[in-house]
Amino acid sequence: MPASLVAPRTGQPLGGRLRRALLLVPCGLSMLMGLDSALALLNLSAPLGGERFTGAHGMLMVIGFVGALVGLERSVAIRRWWACVAPVCMALGALLSLVGPLPMRVGKAVMVAGCIAMCVDCVVLWNRNREPLVAVQIGGGVSALCSAIVWFGGAAVPGFISFLISFLVLTVIAERLGPSRIGQLAWTPGRRRLHEDSLVVLAALALLSGPLTMMRPSVALPVYGLVLIALSVQSASGDVARRGIKAAGSNRFMPVMILTGYGWLVVTGLLLLRPALSGLRYDATLHAVLLGFTMSMVAAHAPTILPALLGVQMRFVAGFWGVGLVLHATLAVRVAADLAGSEFWRQVGGLGNIASLLGLVAVAIWSSVTQDAAATEQAPRPGSGGPPVVTVPRADA
Q1: Exposed, middle or buried by CB within 10 Å (0-12, 13-18, 19+), for 254?
Q2: Torsion over CA of 61, 41, 159 and 27, rounded to 10 degrees?
Q3: Which residues in the chain show pLDDT less than 50?
Q4: Fold of 14-176+186-374
Q5: DSSP state, 250?
Q6: Are 388 and 379 in contact (CB under 8 A)?
Q7: What does the pLDDT read at residue 386?
Q8: Do residues 135 and 203 touch, judged by C-beta distance below 8 A?
């Protein structure tokens, strides 16, 4: 497969690149601590482990890792030093919640502060560009803040899973669909506005479902599942990735991963139609949206995230296909094992999930250090459905 150059040199100041590289450290540590706690939850030997690790697993991965990564990318859009407060506090709060000598509430309080800062960042973006997709971003930020507040109050993660899911889903959809307008050039302004307004309505329903699923889960969770399915279908209908699914070679990777991610969001909604969300069914639901939907989107945009953050060049390598295959195949094994109650296959799938995340990091690093061989190749044409030449889609772009 020919390698494709997917990001040009950004010309970013060295100081800014070094600062963002340092800010990636707590984000990466949160991911590693989350993977460590995943081993413990799989009843496997973990280097660290402990009750704090297992109890904080969901918040480590969703807020400490994904949330901090999104916040760091958003700070690039805002271009103000204070925009880095959100990702630092979100990741640092997750890590501090694991430190034994400190009360766990210290880390939780820092995480709440980080989520407040994220909401402020969303308001700044709204003042710059009052578009429907920015409103959807705000809904994601509010969902993250609600989850952090409820966790600070002592609730267990399964009790407020809808807040975590809404944060992931609304944030990713808003960030993803921004540049999809390139593929909507044939749409009339009225059709585009109707599509985006419907996303705002569905985002509002998802946000309102949070407290309802905590108070009346037997009624609210199935309704929330239907909202997620509607969000997936509506988002996919306006995503330019549909046009690139038949592209050749490396240009097909991004649309395949994106559309597969939407499929996993539908699976998440279907799992929620049965309100008894506990034990292995909870495990299947959370990982369907965290790994199947969110990490599929992250992997799809991996060749553009690091170039935007660090100002380095990356090229597409075949290893990205391997990571995608392992991620989705082992997740399918894990979800099936959860529903069947098979501990052995759940462990097999879980180990594969961990390997895919570590493999994604390794492949991303490899693609950046070997980019010189592809430096003279032409970048894919924007809007083709292949890897874009810009950073992860932003609503203010």
Answers
A1: buried
A2: -10
A3: 1-11, 372-397
A4: Cytochrome C Oxidase; Chain A (1.20.210)
A5: G
A6: no
A7: 41
A8: yes
Rounded CA-CA distance 195/173 in Å is 13
Using CA atoms, how far apart are residues 175 and 292, in angstroms rounded to an integer? Answer: 17
Alpha carbons 328 and 359: distance in angstroms, whole number: 13
Which spans in the chain are helix H? 14-41, 51-55, 57-59, 68-78, 85-96, 104-128, 132-152, 161-177, 189-215, 217-237, 241-244, 253-272, 279-287, 296-310, 319-340, 343-369
Residue 81 CB contacts under 8 Å (≥ 6 apart), including other chains: none
Any idea what the Cα angle at residue 169 is, between residues 158 and 148, rounded to 5°? 45
Are 179 and 210 a contacting pair, CB within 8 Å?
no
- The C-alpha atoms of residue 143 and residue 139 are separated, in whole angstroms, by 6
For the segment 114-139, what is each residue's pLDDT rounded down to a tens digit?
Answer: 999 999 999 999 998 888 889 999 99
Per DSSP, the three-state class of 291 is helix
Whether residue 213 contacts residue 165, with contact meaning beta carbons closer than 8 Å, is answered with no
Give residue 274's pLDDT. Answer: 82
Q: Are 117 and 86 in contact (CB under 8 A)?
A: yes
- Two tokens at 139? 């809904």
Q: Which of 322, 302, 316 is nearest to 373 (CA)?
A: 316
**Quick one: pLDDT at residue 135?**
93
Per-residue pLDDT tens over the stretch 34-70:
999 999 999 898 888 777 888 889 999 999 999 999 9
What is the reported pLDDT for 373? 47
Give dist(CA 7, CA 390) in Å, integer: 7
Which residues, at least 6 apart from 247, have a Cβ–Cβ distance to it below 8 Å? 255, 384, 385, 386
3-state secondary structure of 5: strand
Which residue matches tokens 């490396």?
250
Check: CB of residue 172 under 8 Å from CB of residue 228. no
Instruction: Please state the separation of Cα 303 from the chain's center in Å.
Output: 15
pTM value? 0.86
Cα–Cα distance between 52 and 59 in angstroms, integer?
11
Task: State residue 151's pLDDT score.
Answer: 95
